[in-house]
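// run 5 | inverse folding | seed 20
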């Protein structure tokens, strides 16, 4: 039996805007298994960002349960959520979110620093990840000295530093030209082949076709859930 690394059970998210309640997610139930490569798609305002915030433990459901790697995170404290994010999740952003004052190597090491890992061990892990994404020759360059594609490679390496159970990617090729975007997607495919669980928000149907499963949202509900 496949193991569910993510389990949503009737997850709802409502925001209070003054006296008005706006229900953004309307009872989503789904399971994502270890090793799946999933794209989350849908029109603007359909709930993709809200869903990603919940998946990334940046917010809590209004109701329903969310189990991440077997743990119900719905009622955790802020500190507990922060600890879960650091241990279980890797984030990849459209705008890279690198620290401009730090080198490639130092940016990759940031999650390890916050986990209190040994300096020598952190350096060894970061160098290995830099090599994996093809940046072993740019270890001491700063982000502003890199192309967009190279910066996103740093972002991917950083997201892997703590060996997370799930990678969450938010429009990871959105700021890249087509060639750099293809290179980044090739890295995702290689990570998938190695067994990494990946959830990627994208608006691009061509990218969605590359994943092994596509979840289509519409008006806060799952409209389609297609396995390939």
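// decoded
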């Amino acid at each position: 039996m496949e193991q569910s690394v993510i389990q949503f059970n009737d997850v709802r998210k409502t925001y209070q805007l003054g006296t008005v309640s706006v229900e953004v997610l309307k009872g989503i139930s789904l399971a994502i298994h270890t090793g799946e490569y999933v794209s989350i798609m849908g029109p603007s305002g359909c709930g993709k960002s809200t869903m990603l915030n919940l998946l990334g433990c940046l917010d809590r459901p209004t109701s329903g349960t969310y189990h991440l790697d077997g743990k119900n995170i719905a009622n955790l404290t802020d500190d507990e959520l922060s600890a879960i994010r650091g241990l279980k999740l890797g984030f990849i952003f459209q705008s890279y979110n690198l620290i401009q004052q730090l080198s490639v190597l130092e940016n990759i090491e940031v999650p390890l620093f916050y986990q209190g890992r040994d300096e020598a061990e952190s350096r060894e892990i970061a160098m290995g990840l830099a090599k994996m994404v093809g940046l072993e020759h740019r270890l001491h360059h700063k982000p502003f000295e890199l192309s967009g594609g190279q910066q996103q490679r740093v972002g991917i390496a950083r997201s892997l530093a703590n060996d997370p159970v799930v990678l969450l990617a938010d429009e990871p090729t959105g700021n890249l030209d087509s060639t750099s975007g293809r290179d980044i997607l090739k890295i995702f495919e290689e990570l998938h082949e190695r067994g990494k669980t990946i959830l990627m928000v994208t608006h691009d149907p061509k990218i969605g076709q590359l994943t092994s499963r596509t979840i289509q949202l519409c008006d806060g509900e799952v409209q389609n859930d297609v396995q390939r």
